[in-house]
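Following the same procedure, the fold was encoded as C-alpha cells, giving this record:
***
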Amino acid sequence: MASHPKPFYTPEEYLKIERKAAYKSEYYTGEIFAMSGASRAHNLIVANVTTALNTQLENRECEIYANDMRVRTPDRSTYAYPDVVVVCGQPQFEDAEVDTLLNPTLIIEVLSPSTETHDRTKKFADYRKIESLKEYILIAQQECRLTQFIKQPDGMWLFQEASSLGEIVHLTSVNCDLALEKAYRKVVLPSQQEEALP
C-alpha cells in the first residue's frame, strides 16, 4: 500500500493556520506537529520555575513567558513553544502580532518521556541557531535532575547537572538562582512514591 507524502507548509502557511487554531502546534522544516497536553508534574514545575524567576526579575528589564510564547529560529525552520522563556532587554518579534519572539535569552524545557530525546538533540540544535540565546535548561519530571547548558564567549556550550533537592542552580544568563526544592515544590517524584510503599 502506497504511503501518502506528508504535506509541506511554508512558515507563512503555518502561522496563518496556527493563529486561527484552537490548539497549539509547533513547526519543524515544513511539517506541523500538534502539541499534546501536559501532566500535573509538568504543569507544577513550569509554574514553580516561573514564579521563582519572576520574583527575581520583577525590577529588571526582563520579561518571562510560560507555555504560550512562540519562539522562531533565524532561518525560520523552527517555530516552537518553550515551557519557559526569558528575554532581557528589548524583546523583538516577527511581526505586529507580537506572538513570535526572536531574541530569547534563556529557554527552559520540562522533559517528558515522549519529548526528552527531541528536547536534548534536535530542539537544542535548533535553539542554538538563535544568537541571543545564552542558556538552555532541561528539567526532568520523572526524577530530580536539572541539566544546564551555558553559552561561552567562544560559542561553545558548557554542560552542568544538578540532581539533589538541596542544590541551588545559578542561571548565569539572567543572574537568578533556582533552588531545585522550589522547582519541584508539590511534585511527587516516582522515587518518593517508592519510598512511601511499605
User: Anything to note?
Assistant: The helical segments are 11-18, 40-57, 116-120, 122-127, 180-183, 190-196. The chain has a mean pLDDT of 93.
